[in-house]
């Protein structure tokens, strides 16, 4: 783009820049966005391929995110950590034409005011994203024989084996009495939602391990069993803090490779309490 507009100065944010219109220089505003999936399709359609299509096609709404480090907030007073210093500024953008199209571009029609997302809001967003991604990956492994199982194993490992070094332990402060004393009613609701997401992650991980074990001819036994052992430790820690979590696997299904080899059934559907 810069070669198409020689001499233009790059502006790579959505910050207010109307003052630049008074300059004689040329400016080119380019910033990264991600498509926003219409929630109506998530509710109406359960077919994975159709959902994928509408996540990547006929898109008119996008989101721009920018991270910020803030100190001296009520969150850093609770705990001065990277999690508590990290804020995200989000802005949505709407375009006139659905993308992608023949021209691969469209005029911006509207954009929202900046939304400042606190560390608590980002914790909820991150948990929801991880849960959705893991469940989707497990369904892909079970329904698509040619799909590699390696990304799913890496995703599981990133959750259950990160717990010792951090992971959701970083969110423990949100459930403390000190934190409760400074929360607004809306933030109390976010904490309740975060608690539900953390509990829901346990049966989702179990389902992912079941899907991972279904590829017994592709999966290293030692690696898989290390994931299972880490999962049980992870589950015990979650149940200690948030209460017992019931298994969502159908009867007779196992997350262990040795038992999977004799089990020809596959869990094609999976639901967790939302």
Short account of what is shown:
By secondary structure, this protein is of the alpha+beta class. The chain has helices at 39-44, 48-56, 74-78, 82-85, 119-143, 150-160, 177-180, 185-213, 221-242, 257-260; strands at 9-11, 27-29, 34-35, 59-69, 86-99, 108-111, 115-117.
Task: Outline the fold blueprint.
Layout: E1 9-11, E2 27-29, E3 34-35, H1 39-44, H2 48-56, E4 59-69, H3 74-78, H4 82-85, E5 86-99, E6 108-111, E7 115-117, H5 119-143, H6 150-160, H7 177-180, H8 185-213, H9 221-242, H10 257-260
Parallel strand pairs: 1-2
Antiparallel strand pairs: 3-4, 4-5, 5-6, 5-7
Helix pairs in contact: 5-6, 5-8, 6-8, 6-9, 8-9
Structure description:
The chain is of the alpha+beta class and 274 residues long. It folds into three domains: 1-31, no CATH class; 36-117, no CATH class; 121-260, DOCK DHR2 domain, lobe C (Methane Monooxygenase Hydroxylase, Chain G, domain 1), CATH 1.20.58.740. The protein is 43% helix and 15% strand. The protein contains ten helices and seven strands. The strands form two sheets. Strands 3, 4, 5, 6 and 7 form a five-stranded antiparallel sheet that branches. Strands 1-2 form a two-stranded parallel sheet. Strand 5 (86-99) and strand 6 (108-111) form a beta hairpin. Helix 5 (119-143) packs antiparallel against helix 6. The protein is globular and about 70 Å long. Mean pLDDT is 87; it is low at 261-269.
